[in-house]
Design brief:
heterodimer; A: 247 residues; alpha/beta; Glycerol-3-phosphate (1)-acyltransferase; seven-stranded mixed β-sheet; 7 strands; globular; B: 79 residues; mainly alpha; Non-ribosomal Peptide Synthetase Peptidyl Carrier Protein, Chain A; 3 helices; 52% helix; 0% strand
Chain lengths: 247, 79
């Protein structure tokens, strides 16, 4: 019964909210853009997207879905950082709104194919590892990091829809080695059925977004890309086992 | 010797390195890691394989064993 109610509550609210919020946010940023310069306009645009995502995941399904952000990692050094998350569900990109600071997400091609949301993802400068030539990806990602913009990656490349963590692709770890930025592992817990893969049905539950201590360049400088991705993956897997095993 | 490349360059446990293991699905390498693998194999065996078409059809450890074996025989057979 709770499940039915949650979906009846969420989806109409989601469509209505999106219908109003997306044009309003887009127009408000577009109106300011000529006066504030490209960099500040992009920052405002990303903040608007983040705010939209925060409302979608924290407000619309509340109280049957609750999101808890846990900072087990402490303050990050200033500048760009690479956030690396496990990937369980289509709600993962929305959960990134919990993270402080300005971020651009690294995505496959499917988000860009979403109506309306895909357009705004492109406008916010989201990076598609599938569509972009490799050199262009590294160049644009590098510029964002140098500008102090963080990047968020889901290196499994696809949703696991379970508690398992799939193999990681190495491209973002090569980027980290090139650019020598902090790597921030983030564990997403509890949303493998929010929504259920293949159906769109949301199950009630508590989602935890748990930020771990950053892995700094001094620690990983001498590692190979494979070693780096394996060790970051190991930290995420170990944390998930500790948290979910204790639950 | 191929297994030693995986132990040294990819921190794999020898017990994981069975001939039927899939390089991507089981051992966790992706297409970019394959470039590093090719470099490591070239260094280990003293052969040039980067531009060899047969690299693209490698899927398992067994495939790598056979490929390296073939390359070494071809190299020895050259005058």
């Amino acid at each position: 019964m709770k499940r039915v109610w949650l979906n009846l509550q969420f989806y109409p609210a989601f469509f209505l909210f999106s219908l109003v919020a997306i044009p309003a946010l887009a127009l408000s940023v577009a109106a300011l853009a000529p006066f504030i310069g490209h960099r500040r306009a992009m920052r405002r645009f990303r903040r608007a997207i983040s705010w939209y995502g925060w409302v979608v995941i924290n407000v619309l399904p509340f109280p049957l879905v609750r999101v808890r952000y846990e900072d087990a990692g402490g303050e990050l050094p200033p500048g760009g950082a690479l956030v690396v998350c496990n990937h369980r569900s289509t709600s993962d990109p929305f959960l990134m709104a919990c993270l402080p600071r300005e971020y651009v997400q690294i995505v496959n091609d499917w988000p860009f194919r979403l109506p309306v949301l895909g357009f705004f993802a492109r406008c916010a400068g989201y990076l598609s590892v599938k569509e972009m030539p490799v050199d262009e990806f590294y160049a644009r990602a590098g510029r964002l990091l140098a500008d102090g913009v963080g990047l968020i990656a889901f290196p499994e490349g696809t949703r696991s829809a379970s508690r398992n963590v799939g193999p990681f692709h190495s491209s973002v770890f090569r980027l980290a080695l090139q650019r020598q930025v902090p790597i921030v592992p983030v564990c997403i817990i509890g949303n493998e059925r929010i929504p259920l893969r293949g159906t769109g049905w949301l199950d009630p539950g508590v989602i935890r977004v748990r930020k771990l201590p950053a892995i700094l360049p001094d620690e990983y400088r001498a590692w190979s890309p494979f070693q780096l991705k394996a060790r970051v993956r190991d930290r995420i897997v170990a944390e998930l086992a500790a948290v979910e095993g204790a639950a | 010797m191929t297994n030693q490349v995986f132990v040294d360059s990819f921190e794999k446990e020898p017990s994981e390195l069975l001939p039927e293991k899939h390089v991507f699905n089981d051992l966790g390498l992706d297409s970019l890691d394959t470039v590093d693998l090719v470099v490591a194999l070239q260094k280990k065996f003293g052969v040039k394989i980067r531009d060899d078409e047969r690299v693209r059809s490698i899927r398992s450890l067994e495939d790598i064993y056979r490929f390296i074996d073939a390359i070494q025989k071809e190299t020895e057979a050259k005058p």
